[in-house]
Structures are given as structure tokens and as C-alpha cells.
Backbone:
């Protein structure tokens, strides 16, 4: 064996880097040929002795492994080694063990040199087929000692099956002797290959090679290729990858298919009709694969045949076909176009189909299908941009550009909008012929089209300013979007039409409006809904344009259209289309029509239609309880908005003066509605009063405010929503009426009524109503906070002297309390209102307590960045209000429900902030005393109020555990402890709430740290609870007392400590009360506490 050393050399100079030497071994040739020849020749002798046999095999392996990195050195010697070993194998005197040994040596050689090179040396003449096949059939596939034999025989057979003769010639006369049945060699080879594809050893790899060589023979391919592929697919589908056996079978079948596809010809496997059928498959991946396949196959066809494929693909675009076919067709066209296989002469046929695909939307039940078709159509347009010269696409540029813009702006699906935007951008970049392409690409880029509202209401207006796109966009909205199955799209489409009207007012007035009015009275519910909304929006937009030129709207809208708009309500009423499910769409649509007709100042004064419109608004507000919960709020808001506009336009004979009759009717009607038994009728009536214009309120303000205040004061659970809306309406009415310090209380907000309004709203801030939905009172509190802010800003802007110190103090303290409570949303709202009023200027809100200190806590520059929703940010600021006497009580009251709450993050940050404050005042006796007084006041004011008292006990337990009142423990019978014990006893008196009792037990154990007679009283309470009727309370008390005695070891005499602890831990406190009482009395003796005495109940008088 030759070896060469290569040194890297050494840098010059003695002070250089250390010498670096690289060495490698290179074999010069196969030098062990003599030894290998001797080893092979000795096999007939050594195979009988296991020791010499293993030595020979080991030596052969060592020699061969040296050539793993340079196996080509074996090439000159492979043939004589193979011949020597085959001579042993073929010899009739060779026993089976020697035959297997020969194949083992063959495997070792093939492993080093590689089976692809080595198998070519096997003899592969016609005479070798039968012996090799017979020898392979005699092997046991499950023998783990002879797998090398089976492996090499399969490789040998894969070479012999390449003989250039039809295998049927080797079968002879199979039917010459009926008594003997022989299977054809073709079937035998295929059967044995299939069987070895399912084994778990190396033979499986050789079997896959055999399959790739054998099944691709011309004669076998014609007869057995299809059957083998079916067998493979069936095997794969039935095998389970969850078991070892199933994994082996899957591996064999997949290996065979991989080898087939690698070595076989493409024409043997591709079936073109199946590719065309795959375009209509129900699976997207199949359609995509079929489209790719069609593109590849068509690229190898002559031009005439390729054009026939295009014609077959175009057959997918029929309205008799499903959305799957349209999608597959688009994918195929995109692939053909991308590869340059769609000739320009075909574009007149293809482009109209793509334009239809870009708006393809088929309704299926409550929704629709087609988003994948539209997305694929965008892909086609993208591919066309790369495939054609600008001159070839020029005749279709305007159509494609408009269609892509419409999809990018108006499609419901975000992926389609982004795909259309990308396709438009590609065309602009590569074609350069799209009208105003650069401007539109900048406005409607990938991110801009992500927001649907932005697309409909902003981007569409900009693009429509370019004349090529204006009418196509309007026509698309009218034809495809106002009748869309999604109500959100219908409403956005009508708003978009409103915004697009200035771009084409004449077209809207003379063409679009006459189209919409028949649809507004049509049969289809969605179309009718969208058409009514669109007619209303376009009319209002036309009014705005006419008003800019000091012209009446009737000069733009024809008299026929005006009559049509006026007749919509009566026609729907006559058809009873305000009832049922359809009525849930018709009522808000006609309410929008009423609002827009009123805002457009249509000449309908004293017209009977006004009475009809008023009836619809009143009936809608009275029958809200009959409407489904989903659309209810939208219908209510639409009716209220319509009422405001209707009053403003048609109930004002002279500017600033109301129609006395209508004013009396409406105000009386809605005030009466505030007393309805239906909560939703109350809500509608309250909001209706809040929407009335100023001239309708004039002279009726006292009556309206009294009704709203009365509605706010009714605390029944079922009227929570009514109180919320009454609180909203109260501020709306006051802001609308205006403020005048010396004005009449029946017309404006003045000194005579401002206090009553504030008292009502502050009373709403104490609404903590609970029902099955949770803290529904929070709705009322939120509305009251908003109303207080609006009311205060209104009063401050006109007559700040109306705000007394008491009113402002009550408002700010209530807001501080809400800012410290546990629900993130309402805490954030309260905090933002608090800061808004604090920082209000021009002029500032007067009489805010501790204004300077508050501005230091909430500086102007940091107030906007403060995230009130995050407990980690809100509570460190809120707890600073505990230092301010005016805010201390209310802030502590709000913190109580946060610290003693259930939400982990709220509890953690609120308690941490509270305890940080307590640590700061530990050395300040006056501040700590003031805090403890506020704490007792909170407890005293909320006795038996479980919303506060249970969290208060939890909070108090944490305070005592952290030794927050350690200063008081040095005093005998400190008054704070005495009062706290008295309040705790009162709180749990006759209580059956286990949560409250457990919290009280923890507090009692914490109170044990105080000195004096109070400690005896605490022990007495604990020993009372240890005999509580509830076993769980007895067990909890014993456990807590045990832990308490471990913590405070000075409570009892050390002499009885062990006895007490043993009794507490060993007694079964869940036994009956009589048994437990004995143990309890023993504890009383040990602890020196008076035994509780049973009180006999006297006779009922």
C-alpha cells in the first residue's frame, strides 16, 4: 500500500506562527489481491470451522473497508473476484452454507464499490434467468442469517431480466401437459418482487431496483405496468404508518414507485386525459398538480396540438361547471401563459373568461364559494404580464386594469384583494400601459388593501378620480355588491356609492338611480335591502353637490325618481314586508332612507309620507323586543338617527320653533315609553329623547329630565339596559339644550337643574347590578362616566360657575373609585375620563380636589401613553391617590375589589401597588392611622355587601400576613383591632357562605398578633368556628389555627403546646358536632378560653 505525505511548509523567520502540517493518506492501488484470492479459495475449507470462518470474514471486511473512500481501485479486480465466488455458488458440491458465504462476500464487495457498478458484472444471458429465479424462490424471506444471499440474487435477477427477448419465449408450452400448471416467468418475477418489497431487511432496496428494471421492459410495461401501479397505490392506501409493519410496507411501495419514475420514460406514466379531468377535482392540491402537469406536457407538444389543449382547458369555463372546474381552469391558463404556450390569437377567447372569473361568486346556502377562483384569476393576470408583449395585450388593457382594480378594492376576501393588487403591480411594471398605473399602485399596495373599510371608503374614491375607472367601479357596485349575501358588504357598497357620486353625478342621477328603484321594490330580500340603502346614500350625496351650487336637489334627481323614493315605504307597508326576518333588514334600510331624505331636504313637508315614516320609527322603537338580538342594536340606532333628521327637517315650521302638536305628541309618547314593561321599549324611548333637536326640547326639558332621572333610579335587574340608555340620553339632552346660568330650567341647563342631573348620573355610578350575564351594572357605570364627561365639558365651556365644589368632588372621587376597580375595560374608561377632565382647559374644570398633586401623578406628557387596560401600568398610578385625603376612601374602595378579586394579573399588580404604599407610610403614624380609619369605614359601609365584604376580607388577610399594621401590635387592645374584630364578627353572623367564612377565619388568625384582651376574643371566635355546623369550616378552622400557633408561638403556654397541636392535627373534625364539641372544650381548657355555651331557643311568641 502506497502512502503519500503532504506538508504545508513553514513561514520564514523564527518568530513566525507555529508550523501547521496537514497529512492525508492516498492509496496507490489494490495491493491485497493475492491475499483476497487466497481467502476466497480457502472458503470451501474454512467454512466448516466457525472460528476460522469468522476470522476469514473479518479479514475480508478489514481489507475491503480500506477502500471505502477510493472504491474505484477495485475496478480492475472486480471481475476475477466475482467469477471466483460465482464458481463456488454454482458448484453442485457446495453446501448451502458455502453458497450463502459466497453471497455474503459478494455483498461486502458491492457495499464498498456500490451496487450500481457491481451488478453490471453479473452474467445476464438467457440461460441465467431460470436458475437465478429458482434459487431465489428457494430462499426463506424470514431467515435473518441469509439476507445477503437474497439481496444479491435480487440484484442479479434485475440484470438478467434485461435480456432483449420477450419473456413469453422462455415459458415454453405451458399448456402442453394439463396435469402440470406452471406460472409464466413474468408473473413469477413480479410476484417475487412484490413479496420482497414488504420485507424489513436490505432485500427491500434490491427489490425496488428489480421493479424499476423489470416493469419498464417493453413487454412487461404493456401487460403489467398499470396493474403494478394500482397494486402500489392500494398498498399505500391500506398500510398504516402507525405500526412498524405498516411503515415497512409503505417504504417498499414508495421506493418502488420512486425507482420506476426515475428510470422509466415519462410517456409510460403520463395519461393526458386524467390531467384535464384533474382540473375539476375536489382537492385543491390535485387541481394545482394537474395544472402544472398540463403546462409541462403542452410544452412538449407541437403548436397545433398545444392549441387543442388550450381549447380543452377553456371548456372548464362554463356556468354549468362547478367552482372547482373554474379554479382548475384558471390555474391551467396561468401555467400555459407563464410558459408562453397561450398564443396571442387566443387572447380574445381567454380574456372575457378571466374577467368573469375575477368576479366569480356563487352563493351556497348562507354564504358563497369562489374566492379561490378569483385568486387564481389574479394569478392568470399576473402570468399574462410576464408572458406577452405590451402590443399583444394592448386591446385588453383597459378591461384587465378595471377588473383588477375592482377586485383589489371591492373583493370581500383579503387574499383576493392582495392577489389583485400584486397582479396589477406586475402589469404596471412589465407592461407599462395600465392607465395611471403608478398612482394606483402607490395607493392600493399590499398593505393598503388589507383593510376592507379603507378599500371601500378611501382607496375607491381616489381610484375613481381617474375617468377610466369611474363607471366600471360604480357599475360593479350596483351589479354585484349591493345584492351581496354579506350585509357588511352591502352597507359598505352603499357608502362607497355615496363617496363616488361626486365623480359622476349625472351618471348617478340619470342612470344608476332609475336602475336602483325597481330593485328596491323587488322580490330578492338582499337586493331590496341594498338598493334602498344605495338610493338613500346617492340621494344625499347628490343633495350635497346641489347645495354647494345653491341649487335644490330636485334639479339633479328627476321627479320620477323622487316619487319612487317617496313610495318605497308605502309599498313595503302594503306588502307587509316590515314583518319577520325580512323586516329586520327593511326597517333599518327604510330608517336610513328617512334619514337621508330628511338630510337631503326633499320637498315632502305636510306630505302623508311623513306620517308613514313617523309610524315606522315609533313602531320600530316599540317592537324592539320582537327583533332578533343580533341586528337589534343596529335597528335601534338607525331608527333613532332617522328620528333626529326627520324632526330637524319636517317638524320645524320656522327656524328654531317646533310644531307644537308634534312636539307634545312625541315628547309625551317617549316619556310614557320610559315606563313600559318592556326594557327595550324603555331603551328606544330614552335614546329617542336624547336624539331630539333643540327646538323639540325647548319648553319640555324639565319634563324630559324628570322622566330620564326616574328611569335611571329604578334598580330592577331587568331594566339595566334602560338605565344605561337613560344615562346616555340625559347627557345628550343637556348638551343639545345648551347651558345658561340664568336661563329657564325648562329650556336650558341652569342652576335650577344642574345639581339634579349630576346627582342622577353619580347615582348611576353606584350601579353594581348582577345577573346571569355578570356585572351588567358596569354598562350603566360606563354610560354615566361618558355622560359626566360630556356634561362637564359642556357646562365648563359656557357657565363653569354652575359646578359647585361638592359636585366636582363627588364626580372625581367616583371616577377615582372606578379607575381602581377590577374590570380592565371599565377601569380604562374611567381612567381616561378622569385624566381628560383633569387636563381640560379653556377653561379648566373648577374645584378639582388636589389638582396640583394629581397633575404631578398624571402629567400631561405621560397621560396619553398610560395604558389603563394594563394592571401593571394603571395600579402604580392609582395607589398614589391614597395619599390624598379627598380620594383615599373611594380609591381604597375600588382597590378592595381588585386586590381581593380572582383575576391573577389584577390581583398581583393591585396588591403589590397597595402594599408598596403601606410600606411607605409604616413610619408615619398619622398617615397609617388615617389609612386604617378609611379601611374601617369601607368595611363598615359595606357590611353584608358580599361584592365588597368578601374581597375586603381577602385583602385584609394579605395585609395582616404582611404585617402591614405591625405598629399597632405593641399597643394593648388597639382600637383598630377591636373595631376590626367587631366588624368581622358582625359580617359572618348567621352567614352560610363558606367562601366568606373561610376568609374570616384567615383574618381571625391574622388578628392573633395583636396584644391584650382582643387576643382572647379572637381565640374564642376561632373555637366557636371549630364547632361550626359545616364540616368543611370545622376542618378549615382547625388547619388554620394549627398553622397560626406554629407562626405565633407566644399565644399559648409552652407546657400545653404539644397537647394542643396533637389535638388539632389528630382529631377528625368532620365527625358529628357532639363528638367534636368535646375536643373543642378540651382546647378551651388548654388555651384558657371560656367554653362557649349553648343558648336554648325560647318559644316563639
Residues:
Amino acid at each position: 500500500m502506497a502512502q503519500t505525505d503532504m506538508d504545508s511548509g513553514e513561514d520564514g523567520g523564527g518568530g513566525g506562527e507555529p508550523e501547521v502540517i496537514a497529512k492525508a493518506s492516498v492509496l496507490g492501488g489494490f495491493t491485497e489481491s493475492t491475499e483476497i484470492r487466497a481467502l476466497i479459495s480457502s472458503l470451501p475449507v474454512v467454512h466448516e470451522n466457525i472460528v476460522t470462518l469468522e476470522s476469514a470474514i473479518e479479514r475480508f471486511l478489514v481489507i475491503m473497508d480500506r477502500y471505502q473512500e477510493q472504491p474505484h481501485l477495485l475496478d480492475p479486480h472486480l471481475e476475477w473476484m466475482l467469477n471466483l465466488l460465482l464458481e463456488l455458488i454454482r458448484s453442485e458440491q457446495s453446501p448451502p452454507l458455502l453458497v450463502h458465504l459466497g453471497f455474503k462476500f459478494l455483498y461486502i464487495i458491492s457495499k464498498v464499490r456500490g451496487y450500481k457498478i457491481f451488478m453490471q458484472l453479473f452474467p445476464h444471458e438467457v440461460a441465467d434467468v431460470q436458475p437465478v429465479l429458482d434459487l431465489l424462490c428457494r430462499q426463506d424471506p424470514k431467515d435473518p442469517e441469509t439476507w445477503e444471499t437474497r439481496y444479491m440474487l435480487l440484484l442479479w435477477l434485475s440484470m438478467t431480466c434485461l435480456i432483449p427477448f420477450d419473456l413469453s419465449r422462455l415459458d415454453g408450452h405451458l399448456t402442453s401437459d394439463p396435469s402440470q400448471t406452471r406460472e409464466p416467468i413474468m408473473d413469477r418475477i413480479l410476484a417475487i418482487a412484490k413479496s420482497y418489497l414488504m420485507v424489513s431487511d436490505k432485500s427491500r432496496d434490491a427489490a425496488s431496483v428489480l421493479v424499476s428494471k423489470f416493469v419498464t421492459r417493453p413487454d412487461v410495461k404493456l401487460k403489467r405496468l398499470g396493474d403494478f401501479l394500482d397494486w402500489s397505490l392500494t398498498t399505500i392506501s391500506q398500510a398504516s404508518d402507525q405500526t412498524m409493519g405498516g411503515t415497512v410496507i409503505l417504504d417498499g411501495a414508495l421506493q418502488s414507485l420512486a425507482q420506476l419514475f426515475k428510470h422509466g420514460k415519462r410517456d409510460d406514466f403520463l395519461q393526458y386525459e386524467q390531467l384535464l379531468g384533474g382540473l375539476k377535482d375536489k382537492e385543491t392540491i390535485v387541481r394545482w398538480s394537474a395544472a402544472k402537469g398540463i403546462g409541462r406536457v403542452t410544452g412538449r407538444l407541437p403548436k397545433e396540438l398545444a392549441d387543442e389543449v388550450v381549447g380543452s382547458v377553456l371548456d372548464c369555463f362554463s356556468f354549468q361547471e362547478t367552482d372547482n372546474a373554474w379554479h382548475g381552469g384558471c390555474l391551467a391558463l396561468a401555467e400555459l401563459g407563464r410558459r408562453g404556450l397561450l398564443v396571442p390569437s387566443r387572447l380574445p377567447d381567454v380574456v372575457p373568461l378571466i374577467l368573469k372569473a375575477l368576479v366569480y361568486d356563487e352563493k351556497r346556502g348562507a354564504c358563497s364559494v369562489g374566492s379561490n377562483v378569483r385568486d387564481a384569476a389574479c394569478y392568470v393576470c399576473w402570468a399574462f404580464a410576464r408572458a406577452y408583449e405590451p402590443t399583444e395585450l394592448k386591446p385588453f388593457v383597459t378591461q384587465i386594469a378595471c377588473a383588477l382594480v375592482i377586485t383589489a378594492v371591492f373583493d370581500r376576501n383579503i387574499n383576493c384583494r392582495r392577489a389583485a393588487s400584486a397582479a396589477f403591480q406586475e402589469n404596471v411594471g412589465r407592461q407599462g400601459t395600465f392607465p395611471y398605473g403608478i398612482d394606483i399602485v402607490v395607493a392600493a399596495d399590499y398593505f393598503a388593501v388589507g383593510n376592507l373599510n379603507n378599500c371601500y371608503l378611501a382607496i375607491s374614491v381616489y381610484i375613481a378620480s381617474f375617468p377610466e375607472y369611474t363607471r366600471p367601479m360604480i357599475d360593479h357596485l350596483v351589479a354585484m355588491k349591493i345584492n351581496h349575501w354579506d350585509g357588511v358588504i352591502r352597507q359598505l357598497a352603499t357608502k362607497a356609492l355615496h363617496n363616488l357620486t361626486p365623480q359622476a353625478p349625472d351618471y348617478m342621477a340619470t342612470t344608476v338611480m332609475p336602475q336602483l328603484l325597481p330593485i328596491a321594490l323587488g322580490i330578492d330580500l338582499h337586493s331590496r335591502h341594498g338598493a334602498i340603502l344605495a338610493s338613500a346614500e346617492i340621494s344625499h350625496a347628490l343633495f350635497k353637490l346641489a347645495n354647494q351650487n345653491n341649487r335644490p336637489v330636485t334639479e339633479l334627481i328627476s321627479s320620477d325618481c323622487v316619487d319612487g323614493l317617496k313610495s318605497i315605504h308605502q309599498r313595503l307597508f302594503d306588502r307587509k314586508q316590515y314583518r319577520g326576518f325580512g323586516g329586520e333588514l327593511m326597517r333599518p334600510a327604510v330608517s336610513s332612507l328617512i334619514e337621508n331624505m330628511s338630510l337631503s331636504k326633499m320637498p315632502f313637508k305636510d306630505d302623508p309620507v311623513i306620517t308613514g315614516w313617523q309610524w315606522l320609527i315609533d313602531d320600530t322603537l316599540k317592537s324592539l323586543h320582537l327583533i332578533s338580538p343580533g341586528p337589534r342594536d343596529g335597528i335601534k340606532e338607525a331608527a333613532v338617527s332617522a328620528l333626529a333628521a326627520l324632526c330637524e327637517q319636517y317638524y320645524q315650521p320656522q327656524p328654531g320653533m317646533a310644531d307644537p302638536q308634534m312636539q307634545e305628541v312625541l315628547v309625551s309618547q317617549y316619556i310614557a315609553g320610559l315606563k313600559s314593561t318592556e326594557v327595550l321599549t324603555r331603551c328606544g324611548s330614552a335614546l329617542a329623547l336624547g336624539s331630539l333637536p333643540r327646538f323639540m326640547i325647548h319648553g319640555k326639558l324639565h319634563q324630559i329630565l324628570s322622566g330620564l332621572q326616574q328611569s335611571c333610579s329604578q334598580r330592577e335587574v331587568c331594566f339595566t339596559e334602560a338605565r344605561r340608555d337613560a344615562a346616555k340620553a340625559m347627557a345628550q339632552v343637556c348638551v343639545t339644550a345648551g347651558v345658561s346660568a340664568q336661563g329657564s330650567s325648562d329650556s336650558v341647563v341652569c342652576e335650577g337643574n344642574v345639581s339634579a342631573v349630576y346627582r342622577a348620573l353619580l347615582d348611576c355610578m353606584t350601579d353594581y347590578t348582577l345577573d346571569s350575564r355578570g356585572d351588567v351594572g358596569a354598562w350603566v357605570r360606563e354610560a354615566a362616566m361618558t355622560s359626566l364627561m360630556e356634561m362637564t365639558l359642556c357646562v365648563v365651556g359656557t357657565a363653569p360657575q354652575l359646578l359647585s365644589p361638592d359636585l366636582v368632588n363627588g364626580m372625581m372621587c367616583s371616577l377615582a373609585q372606578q379607575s381602581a376597580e377590577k374590570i380592565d375595560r371599565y377601569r380604562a374608561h374611567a381612567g381616561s375620563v378622569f385624566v381628560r377632565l383633569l387636563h381640560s382647559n379653556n377653561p379648566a374644570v373648577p374645584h378639582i380636589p388636589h389638582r396640583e398633586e394629581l397633575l404631578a401623578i398624571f402629567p400631561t406628557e405621560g397621560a396619553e401613553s398610560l395604558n389603563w387596560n394594563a394592571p401593571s401600568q394603571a395600579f402604580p398610578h392609582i395607589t398614589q391617590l391614597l395619599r390624598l385625603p379627598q380620594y383615599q376612601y373611594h380609591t381604597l374602595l375600588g382597590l378592595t375589589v381588585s386586590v381581593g378579586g380572582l383575576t391573577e394579573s389584577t390581583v398581583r399588580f393591585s396588591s403589590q401597588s397597595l402594599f408598596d404604599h403601606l410600606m411607605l407610610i409604616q413610619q408615619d403614624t398619622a398617615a397609617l392611622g388615617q389609612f386604617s380609619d378609611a379601611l374601617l369605614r369601607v368595611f363598615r359601609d359595606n357590611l353584608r355587601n358580599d361584592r365588597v365584604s368578601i374581597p375586603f376580607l381577602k385583602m385584609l388577610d394579605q395585609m395582616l400576613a404582611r404585617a402591614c399594621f405591625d405598629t399597632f401590635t405593641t399597643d394593648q387592645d388597639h382600637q383598630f383591632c377591636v373595631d376590626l374584630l367587631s366588624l368581622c364578627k358582625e359580617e359572618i353572623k348567621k352567614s352560610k357562605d363558606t367562601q366568606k367564612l373561610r376568609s374570616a377565619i384567615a383574618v381571625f388568625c391574622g388578628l392573633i398578633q395583636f396584644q391584650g384582651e382582643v387576643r382572647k376574643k379572637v381565640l374564642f371566635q376561632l373555637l366557636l368556628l371549630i364547632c361550626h355546623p359545616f364540616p368543611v369550616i370545622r376542618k378549615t378552622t382547625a388547619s388554620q389555627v394549627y398553622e397560626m400557633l406554629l407562626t405565633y408561638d407566644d399565644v399559648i403556654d409552652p407546657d400545653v403546646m404539644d397537647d394542643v397541636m396533637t389535638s388539632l392535627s389528630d382529631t377528625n373534625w368532620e365527625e358529628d358536632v357532639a363528638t367534636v364539641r368535646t375536643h373543642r372544650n378540651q382546647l378551651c381548657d388548654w388555651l384558657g378560653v371560656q367554653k362557649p355555651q349553648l343558648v336554648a331557643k325560647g318559644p316563639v311568641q
